[in-house]
Write a sequence for this structure.
């Protein structure tokens, strides 16, 4: 099924990833996107780039207004946006060159058309999964 890799595939994605853009990252500690961002930074496993046009910093780190403003092309784009915004996030992702390898739609997000388009463009897609939970379960010793 599109967007539903098994545990071994998830583990491989997480181990192959070196950089992650967190689209929709929040500076509010109670928000899930803040918790995932902070967790990913704390692991030391990844270069993590928060993306949000409405804030300028999270815990002292700069926040980028868009994927196009990042200093690198991330391996993974992790998405915390509303369902109706997912096509535009995909368009921004596909505009990056070279393209990211992975599109991860956080828990609660599922969009078949976005997944099909992303996969047709060569991205591996994960939908409706929490990156923090899967990383903690599959990659932490």
């Amino acid at each position: 099924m599109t967007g539903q890799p098994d545990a071994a595939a998830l583990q491989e994605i997480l181990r192959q990833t070196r950089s992650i853009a967190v689209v929709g990252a929040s500076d509010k500690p109670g928000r899930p996107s803040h918790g995932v961002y902070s967790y990913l930074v704390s692991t030391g496993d990844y270069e993590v780039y928060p993306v949000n046009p409405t804030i300028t910093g999270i815990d002292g780190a700069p926040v980028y207004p868009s994927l196009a403003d990042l200093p690198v092309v991330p391996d993974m784009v992790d998405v915390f946006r509303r369902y109706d915004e997912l096509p535009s996030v995909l368009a921004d992702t596909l505009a990056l060159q070279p393209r990211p390898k992975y599109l991860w739609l956080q828990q609660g997000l599922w969009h078949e058309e976005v997944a099909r388009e992303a996969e047709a463009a060569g991205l591996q897609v994960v939908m409706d999964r929490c990156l923090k939970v899967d990383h903690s379960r599959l990659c932490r010793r």
